[in-house]
């Protein structure tokens, strides 16, 4: 992943949120308190019962392509990508053990003493390691979250010094998990291609050796969830993102739909998938990379394991010819190199969908 000149960035003192609540459980330092219009109030689930993100059943997509179940589920998928930019997948075929094992080591990692975690620091301006990413100034507000991020694939983006030796099975479990998630992403991209009337291999062929990174987000409970933000609003720079929420997780993830923050209710054994900026550009805006954020709660910590899947850095990205029509659907994004977008993304703070301005053709 890209690096910025470290010396030029001053981030001020960044409190480790887990340590903060150990020493002062009822205090929220100024640097975490958001302006009134930026606060993350958790909306009641009940007001949104009619407003769930779609659920796609992958077992139906394993059926022959002429089967009604298959065709119906592809339709659901295409509507999810167009109208929501988010969906949950069930019956995804990843063994429960694999999902549980990654959650276990991630939890154990965050529960280690700070000195141990500090052996894998996220340096200012970099995005791998333990700490807070996307901080670029001393007065920038902080998220109520500790993060641990690693480049996974291809091996050239790995920083082996940041792969922890403890917990003992961390690396092994992450390798196994990442292989399964990679297969899932390839499968989903096939279905997404079919849903766009493209040939199945369209994305796979274009992406080359895809880039895969993981970020584990640990949100400790907060005495004043109404004042803070777990993770600032943003869209993902990836092509696809796969988000796993810890078992029995509280609601935390919210997506912006028709100007309302809609909570994503955790379903047992489901994974949350979202369309990243790259697919939005490739589909000329037909499939949306939707703004989302995470909020905290008073009672319980929340852990998410998030995989970002993207084209190789060398790949040229631009709206696909099949989805552009000069008369009826003119091209909305310029062409660029994915590595340049990736660098742009990680060198700016998270701010809604602002990062996509990089690619927009303004008229
Ligand atoms: C992310 C993200 C949401 C969550 O890591 O990009 O959107 O609930 N996470 O952790
Ligand atoms: Ni995200």
From TrEMBL:
Highest rank taxon of the organism: Eukaryota
Keyword set includes Cytoplasm: no
Keywords assigned: Iron, Metal-binding, Oxidoreductase
Pfam families: 2OG-FeII_Oxy, DIOX_N
Record keyword Zinc-finger present: no
Gene3D superfamilies associated with the record: B-lactam Antibiotic, Isopenicillin N Synthase, Chain
Listed InterPro entries: DIOX_N, IPNS-like_FE2OG_OXY, IPNS-like_sf, Oxoglu/Fe-dep_dioxygenase_dom, Plant_2OG-oxidoreductases
Domain Fe2OG dioxygenase: 202-311
Family that this chain belongs to: Belongs to the iron/ascorbate-dependent oxidoreductase family.
Protein name per UniProt: Fe2OG dioxygenase domain-containing protein
Source species: Brassica napus
């Amino acid at each position: 992943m890209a690096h910025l000149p470290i010396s030029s960035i001053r981030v001020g003192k960044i409190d480790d949120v887990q340590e903060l609540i150990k020493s002062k459980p009822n205090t929220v330092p100024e640097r975490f308190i958001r302006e009134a219009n930026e606060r993350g109030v958790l909306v009641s689930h009940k007001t949104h019962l009619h407003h769930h993100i779609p659920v796609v059943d992958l077992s139906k997509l394993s059926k022959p392509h002429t089967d009604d179940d298959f065709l119906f589920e592809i339709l659901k998928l295409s509507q999810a990508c167009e109208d929501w930019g988010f969906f949950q997948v069930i019956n995804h075929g990843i063994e429960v053990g694999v999902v549980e094992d990654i959650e276990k080591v991630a939890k154990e990692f965050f529960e280690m003493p700070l000195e141990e975690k500090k052996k894998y620091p996220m340096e200012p301006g970099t995005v791998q390691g333990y700490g807070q990413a996307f901080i670029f100034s001393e007065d920038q507000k902080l998220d109520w979250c500790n993060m641990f991020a690693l480049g996974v694939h291809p091996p050239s983006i790995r920083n082996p010094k940041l792969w922890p030796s403890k917990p003992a099975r961390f690396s092994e479990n992450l390798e196994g998990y990442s292989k399964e998630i990679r297969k899932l992403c390839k499968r989903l991209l096939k279905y997404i291609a079919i849903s766009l009337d493209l040939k199945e291999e369209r994305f796979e062929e274009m992406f080359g050796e895809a880039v895969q990174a993981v970020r584990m987000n640990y949100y400790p409970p907060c005495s004043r969830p109404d004042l803070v933000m777990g993770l600032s609003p943003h869209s993902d720079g990836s092509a696809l993102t796969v988000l796993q929420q810890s078992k029995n997780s509280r609601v935390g993830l919210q997506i912006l739909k028709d100007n309302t923050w809609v909570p994503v209710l955790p379903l047992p054994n489901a994974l949350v998938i979202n369309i990243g900026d790259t697919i939005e550009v490739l589909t000329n805006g037909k499939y949306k990379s939707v703004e989302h954020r995470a909020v905290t709660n008073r009672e319980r910590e929340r852990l998410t394991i998030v995989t970002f899947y993207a084209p190789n850095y060398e790949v040229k990205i631009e709206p696909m010819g099949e989805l552009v029509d000069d008369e009826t659907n003119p091209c909305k994004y310029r062409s660029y190199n994915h590595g340049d977008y990736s660098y742009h993304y990680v060198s700016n703070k998270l701010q809604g969908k602002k990062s996509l301005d990089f690619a927009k053709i303004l008229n």
